[in-house]
Amino acid sequence: MEQEVLTIKQKVNEYVLEHTFAEKHKIQDDSLIFKEGYFDSMGFIMLITFIEEEFALKTSDSDLIEENFESINAITSYILRKKTKQ
Amino acid sequence: MKNKDKRPFTKDILVIDNIGAECERIIAGIQENVLHRLHRIGGVIGISGGIDSSVSMALAAKALGTENLLGIMLPEQDSSGDSAKFAQKLADKFGVKAITENITGALQGFGCYERRDEAVKKVLPEYDPNHYKMKIGISSSGLYTNLPPLFSLTIIDNKGNEQSKRIPPNELRQIEAASNFKQRCRMSMLYYHAERLHYAVIGTPNKHEVEQGFFVKNGDGGADVMPIAHLYKTQVYQLAHYLGIPGEIIDRTPTSDTYSAEQTQEEFFFQLPFQQMDLLWYAFKNNYDPLEVGNVMGRTADEVEKVFGGFERKIKTTEYLRMPPLSF
Question: Model ipTM?
């Protein structure tokens, strides 16, 4: 389980860094990536698409809340919860 | 920054006290820029029957003289029939010569409709442009959250039945890029007439459109002079009443007039009614305290802060639209 968490977090982290062009030290696992304006509408839908494809899960509209996406930690927890339910 | 030295925030803070003086200032600005800086002898303006182009045309007519202004209606197959009707009415009222340039053929040549419909079908395979109308919009539920809104596609059949679905990124980009041919074709046609007449192109965006990036780069963002680019939408309405713009135009709900299904600018981009958008944008630009703004607007400070955060995001993500070509 711990390894799975690490793997998911690493993939999300790599995606976020690659797509925001942010310097590595600026985005921590608990950084509020949406509040800090790293993603616009296109960035958000691209992130959702990445999550759906990479982790083979489907997001519903009710999933699209800040609690699930506000940081790399939140996204990792969300992915884990979704995968557990599947 | 706190607002110690500013006027208290009220719902009337954007009301222009002396509209006549503001109109005269804009008229002088058009004359100075078109005649003396650009050295052009008149203006062409795209008229859609909407409030912004109507007010811009009325001001340009006063500045340049009706004989030195050409109004151009630029419909295509998805345009509302009302647009041409109201635009003609406006031109008649102000005595401005108006012509129609239908750009449907040019758009077909570019593959605008085919490329757009190909992407639409990937999202909703039952879509058939002969039997459905389509539009894209954003959800207003995202307004008081830090998450940006997502775009959804809606198709409407002949009986009025609607289907909507979130649009994946590739399809969203293709639909937008194909649709942007429309504004870029219009810009090309306006410059054709401007160059043959030695006129300037009068652009019609308001303050929100320019600053929040609600325009197409090298499309409706392409113009020589933008006389109302400093005005909030409610101020544009104030000028419309003063200038005698026909009531039917003032009463129309602003639409994007880009997709085959009717779509308001609020549902496509702004997410808020203009009265609220104007006040919140003014408060944001002038660093008003979210608590003070919230008290006036009936919102919590947290909600106002989230709206401000959305504004910041829009400015940042649309910055490239306002940039000139970069050289280094």
Answer: 0.92
